[in-house]
Design brief:
CATH superfamily of the largest domain: Aldolase class I
CATH topology of the largest domain: TIM Barrel
Number of strands: 16
């Protein structure tokens, strides 16, 4: 598991800033103000003009100790390298990793607010009234990201609760990263408003998709899971509105005790009423946040729901809707489902158990959330 946040032992007086890391001390003067030079050791060159300097050593040696704006990285952040983008708060020494050049799991976190309180939410929303404004940070970071970035996620909280920020960020992605696929994770409720769908469409992003959950074919079950009245109707209308404006949609179904028996019915509902969706993801639980607190009430061992899972897959496949299985280990799935199992857990929180070390299919297995070391299927075994 990688640490995306750390605090250095050194600080200085200065405003927070966003910058790209580089190991090239010969960078053009015109770009140095937007970059932080990563020093491997004290013998490295120390040219002027960079916004700051960081060293992989957790403490400064005698030479660097007297240099201005030098920040030693915490040991667990030693993986940082060329092209990564960070947010640095000099007065506190705090470092946040915003983007990793060689990762496919980069996510733009827009807001901590949400208009749902899903019973299995791994990242509970911030209290009502606790505001934040992160758009300027991301608008500074996006131009520093590599042009050949394959994909970016946009998430929260609920990104549509800050629609102006979301639209600005989408426009920035289109302008600076026109070849990067962008997926917005949303509960879909705010797309009930046609104006939001229209404004998003006007940005004309070339590769944009919305990942939206439907947790049941029964409205009252979906509403219970998300803890919001009329959420099912708003979500379904939101998906239809997005499609009306030509937007691409993926439906996500998190599997929990409250819906696993109806998986075939959920699949049929999607196939019958939303046949235009581009993909359906059937997802395992992440034992964090609300999910950890109510684990015994919501979790079902994946080994015990293979029959409804297979039936749901068969239904979607028969209706020519692409389907994948996320957040599951191969050893708990029936072999007929293996081709659909994806390595979907973000690399910074993906781990394997000691049992997995000698497994013959580990290279193709999605592994575990780091938070699932003690909360996993009884069927885990070496293949």
């Amino acid at each position: 598991m990688l640490k995306l946040y750390g605090q250095s032992v050194v600080s200085w007086d200065g405003d927070p800033f966003v910058a790209r890391l580089t190991t090239d001390c010969n960078r053009p003067l015109a770009v140095r103000e937007q970059e932080v030079l990563l020093l491997a050791n004290e013998a490295d060159c120390y040219p002027e003009g960079f916004r700051a300097y960081v060293t992989a050593r957790e403490r400064l040696g005698n030479t660097l100790a007297y240099r201005p704006r030098v920040l030693p990285l915490p040991a667990l952040m030693g993986y940082l390298t060329d092209g990564d983008v960070v947010h640095i708060a000099p007065r506190s020494g705090q470092i946040h990793v915003l983007y990793r050049r060689h990762s496919t799991a980069n996510t733009i976190f827009v807001t901590g607010r949400c208009n749902c309180r899903c019973i299995m939410c791994p990242q509970p929303p911030k209290p009502t009234g606790e505001e934040e404004h992160w758009a300027p940070m991301w608008l500074a970071a996006i131009p520093l990201m590599a042009q050949d970035t394959l994909e970016l996620g946009i998430s929260g909280g609920e990104p549509t609760l800050v629609p102006d920020d979301l639209l600005e960020i989408l426009a920035a992605c289109r302008g600076h990263l026109p070849h990067t696929a962008v997926q917005v994770l949303s509960n879909g409720r705010m797309f009930n408003y046609m104006s939001l769908c229209r404004n998003i469409t006007c940005i004309n992003h070339p590769d944009l998709m919305f990942g939206i959950p439907i947790y049941s074919d029964l409205p009252y079950v979906h509403d219970y899971i998300v803890q919001a009245e009329n959420a099912f109707d708003q979500t379904v209308r939101g998906i239809m509105n997005l499609r009306r404006y030509g937007q691409r949609v993926e439906v996500r179904v998190v599997l929990l005790r409250q819906n696993v028996e109806r998986l075939p019915d959920i699949a049929y509902f999607i196939a019958r009423n939303l046949p235009f969706v581009e993909h359906v993801a059937l997802m395992g639980l992440e034992p964090m946040g609300y999910a950890a607190a109510s684990w015994h009430d919501i979790w079902v061992d994946p080994a015990d729901y293979q029959a409804p899972l297979e039936a749901a897959v068969e239904c979607l496949t028969a209706h020519r809707i692409p389907v994948s299985i996320y957040n599951h280990q191969l050893c708990v799935l029936n072999r007929s489902l293996w081709p659909l199992a994806k390595k979907s857990i973000s690399d910074w929180k993906n781990e394997y158990l000691g049992t997995c070390q000698t497994c013959g299919v580990r290279a193709n297995c999605g592994g575990f959330f780091a938070s699932a070391r003690r909360r996993h299927s009884k069927a885990i075994h070496v293949i």
